[in-house]
Amino acid sequence: MSHGVDKAVEALLRGQESAYRLKTVLEHASSVPTEPLFDSVLHSFSFALSLFSSSNTQPPHRESSQRKPTPVVARKSPKKNSHGEEGLEQYSHDSPNPHHNDGFSWRKYGQKTIKTSSHQRCYYRCAYAKDRNCNALKRVQQIEDSPSLFRTTYVGKHICEVNAFFQLNDDICNGSKMIRFDKIDQAMPDSVIPQPVPVEQDAILIESTDQNMNLECGSNEFLVDDDQLWGYQIPPCSPGNFMFLDDLSEFDYNPFHL
DNA sequence: GAGATTTGACCGCC
DNA sequence: GGCGGTCAAATCTC
Q1: How much is the mean pLDDT over chain A?
Q2: pLDDT exceeding 90 applies to what percent of chain A?
Q3: What is the pLDDT of residue A123?
Q4: DSSP A33
Q5: How far does the CA of A182 sit from the C1' of B11, in Å?
Q6: Chain C bases having any atom below 7 Å from a protein CB
Q7: How far in angstroms lies nucleotide B11's C1' from the CA of residue A65?
Q8: What is the mean pLDDT of residues A193-215?
Q9: Is A228 helix (H, G, I), strand (E, B) or coil?
Q10: How do residues A148-167 score in pLDDT, each as one tens digit?
Q11: What is the predicted pLDDT for the residue at A92?
Q12: Whole-model pTM?
């Protein structure tokens, strides 16, 4: 793993830890229901980390009572599909929203009635499966025992965004810590990148003095809807803006400055 | 017209 | 042969 990736993982781990601490604090200090918000944050961190960590069979996560990704019980004799997906990483995620926004763009390629369930199962693959040779798949099915919940099973890993990211950010592969978000924007269609909410270009402040990153994204408005929440997951950097991963280590990066 | 979705047919494994 | 998963033509939407 390159130095830049190590730094990225380090920064994500720090952010994850910060979110856990904030959760603990706010649970005792606020009547605002923060559980769904933080669960989504933590899940997002875990998912991002899983993209970098090929050695783990599951994304690292500590679960709460809600939205508990459950490991899929391996088949006794895993059935290979036509593409030989045997052995691919997979995990499941329960959500009340069948269209839970996981930050990726999916294309539906099938739907079937499953013998063991009265509900149909939908099959999706990465929208860039062909363009970027990404083999990520997901299946979405209403849970038989809990009709209000939908189980999304992810199979394989997204290599599309990793390929696009590293191919167009040679600096990272060469040891630099600089990420050019404008390049990412060019390389990845809007449907793939979690869309930042509209914000003034000069409203992005990284204030090392108070050890916080002020995103000025209307942080007084708690958004618990997943789709809206994703708008906050990448700092709204406009073309020409840079983020230095090393900078993150110089202050406690808190993406949800409250 | 291009891209996304639907749906019946087909394939491979058990 | 049954079943889950995928393919691909038809259809839909913008």
Answers
A1: 55
A2: 2
A3: 92
A4: -
A5: 44
A6: 2-8
A7: 40
A8: 36
A9: helix
A10: 778 888 887 776 655 555 54
A11: 73
A12: 0.48
Checking if the pLDDT of A108 tops 80, the result is yes
pLDDT: is A9 or A236 the higher one?
A: A9
Tokens (6 digits) for A35: 């559980």
Count the neighbouring beta carbons within 10 Å of the beta carbon of residue A18: 17
Give me the residue label for tokens 């793939």.
A192
- Residue A112 CA, nucleotide C2 C1', distance (Å): 15
Question: Taking all atoms of strand C, which protein residues have CB closer than 7 Å?
Answer: A 79, 81-83, 85, 109-110, 112, 114-116, 121, 123, 125, 137, 139
Question: Any residues with CB less than 8 A from the CB of A44 and at least 6 apart, and which?
Answer: A103, A230, A233
pLDDT digits (tens, 9 = 90+) for A38-76: 666 666 666 666 555 444 444 433 333 333 444 444 333
Distances (CA, A) of A116 to A113, A139, A225: 9, 15, 31
CB under 7 Å from strand B: A 77-80, 82, 106-112, 122, 127, 191
Q: What are phi and psi of A232, to 5 degrees?
A: -105, 0
Q: Is there a contact between A47 and A236 (Cβ–Cβ < 8 Å)?
A: no
User: Which long-range contacts does A28-37 make (Cβ < 8 Å, 24+ apart)?
Assistant: A32/A222, A33/A224, A34/A222, A35/A64, A35/A66, A36/A66, A36/A67, A36/A224, A37/A222, A37/A223, A37/A224, A37/A229
What DSSP state is assigned to residue A157? -
